[in-house]
Amino acid sequence: MATFFKNFGKGLLYVVAFPFIILAIVLAGVVGLFVFFFQLGKLVYLFFTGRSINSDLEEDIAAKAKLQVMEHQQEEKTSNPQTELSLYPSDSPIYNTSDYVSPTFGEEKEVEAEPIEEEDDNHVI
Amino acid sequence: MLFNPILISLSENDKRLIFALLIVIILVIVLVGYLSFLLVKLMKWQARKADTLIHDVVVTKVITNKRHLINYGRKKNWALFFKQAYIPLIIIAVGVAVLLIRDAVYNDYSYNPFSVENGFGSIFWTWKLSDEFIGGDLIKFNKIVVDNYPHFVAEGWAGYIVAPCFLVGGAWYLVVAASLLARTIKIQVRSREVFEKSLDGYTQSETNVNTQVNQNNVDNNV
């Protein structure tokens, strides 16, 4: 019974709102006519400049490029899951400093041994 | 008292008429309600299309402010509207062209394509109020009689082409206009929501404590 009255109330609301909905749509239709002729003019202009109204906007091109990069990264992650285990994650607050130099393990150089100078015990390496 | 209910005695005809009127009113309310319900459904469906239009640029953070999103959304919305609207507008234009040609040929610029005598209305039943009255002593109405039975009129050929063009094209265009309106509203709403900064559940003191704990952990690790 409650559902019936709820639906009935909704129906009454729709009946009351109907003229306003129609008025809004008719106004949108009138505005739409101006929009249509504006778009028609734009279509003609774009046609004579060798472009189309369906061609992508600058934002679309940028978004597509970014999406491709994101998809590529996703594919790499799925094909090579070890890459996810990063030793020094870039978003870490500890290592995300500009003066941090990542260690290199490529070349090993021989250096002369020097005596280690003893320092204070409190010194942190 | 003049309108004391006890003094008012409804005749059988009055009761029938009231009953019939109630049914007609309920039917009209139900029909209008369903039509509004359908329109709202259509507008909600078209509003979801607006999300599709602006989704990629928002997710990839190509657009990072409200004004830019509204401008971008408007361009995409108008382009989609143009694609949707050109067919109904062409149908209406065909109707207008046929009407103008007919008027030029017959040299009659007052022709009504929906006319019952020589237009689209001639192929429908139509009714009118007669001078006779129906009802009881209290409630009376003019009797409704059939005005026109469906029949074809040769000189109404233009009406049979023009009126359907206007009706179909007009209804189609209104649906497209409703879609334009729905998408415009949705883009406005999204432009506010997407870049909204909320402080719900945020307390600065808690954040400071967490930051301090993290800093301590870092010091200990080093």
Detailed description of the structure:
The complex is a heterodimer of chains A (125) and B (222). Chain A has 125 residues and is mostly helical. Among the domains of chain A are: 1-50, no CATH class; 54-81. Helix content of chain A is 55%, strand content 0%. Chain A is built from two helices and no strands. Chain A has helices at 2-48, 58-79. The longest helix of chain A has 47 residues, at 2-48. Chain B is mainly alpha-helical and 222 residues long. Chain B is 65% helix and 9% strand. Chain B has a two-stranded antiparallel ribbon with strand order 1-2. In chain B, strand 1 and strand 2 form a beta hairpin. In chain B, helix 2 packs antiparallel against helix 3. Chain B is flat. At the A-B interface, helix 1 and helix 2 of A face helix 1, helix 2, helix 3 and helix 4 of B.
Task: Please provide a brief summary of the model.
The complex is a heterodimer of chains A (125) and B (222). By secondary structure, chain A is mainly α.
